[in-house]
Amino acid sequence: MIIIFKENEYVWIELKNVLEKYEVNTIMVRIPNEEKDINSWIPKRCENGLFFIEPLGFYEADLTIFGLPIEARDYIFQKRLHERFIELQTSGQPTIMIDWPPEDIESSLKELVSHLYIRALCADYSNVHTENERLKNWLNRGRAYRITTSNGTDILIKREERPIHTEDCLINKTNKSILQLPCGEVFFAPIEKASNGVLVTKVGKKKIEISIKNGVARFEDERFLKIPNESFLGEFGIGTNRSMAKLFSLSSGEKAYGTCHFGFGNNTDIGGQISTEYHYDIIIDEPTITILE
Predict the structure, then answer these.
(1) How confident is the model at residue 178 (pLDDT cuts 50, 70, 90)?
(2) What DSSP assignment string belongs to 67-82?
(3) Is the pTM higher than 0.85?
């Protein structure tokens, strides 16, 4: 097993110690703090069964654990990073991505956030699976949906006959090679050019509106400078992990029960037609979802 990480070394050392108790040979790889491009640290599978990391060379591993740093929200816009993760998934290499809370979190909150995060990691995933199946069956009753919130979100999306996917982390019962912990969501790729409305989200105390017309969102606020001003809506997902707190600073915050999220950019890996070098999620709290047809 190989563990690749950048922050929170003590967490990964502890994991290594636990694994070694079970006689699991573990390789630890720390991405240098000054590294601004993690693209080269994404493993690439070679024809001879070995894996290759540009700064390290070739290695063998049955499982890769990738500790996503908090800056992953920024890294996702770097050239080919998203494609490299898709390549890794296509290769069949079992990979677990974990976005542990950042080291630079306010000290008074670190213990609380870590506790909440561990609680989410230790969720009963059989319950998550049951929730996923219930929600999937409900969504399958319709082909179009309206999502609203009390603070102004109001958007219509269409699924038609596209497949609905689930993520529940029952690793021995899934054909996916890449999993994110904590798990828990139901999601699909909306029909391109068929979504219309407005999303309302908050960054700090600031309320931000994102208009969507014919599937294209306009990102005009300075908070979204790294997103192309006009981006296709590529994903709609609903969080189903009741143990996950609403930690929206983490990408896994979208797994929290009582939230939904809208993904912009690449969706070719979930049955869509949008091919881009990025994918970015906006989390919406306490949505009301209505089946239209």
Answers:
(1) confident
(2) E--TTHHHHTTSTTHH
(3) no
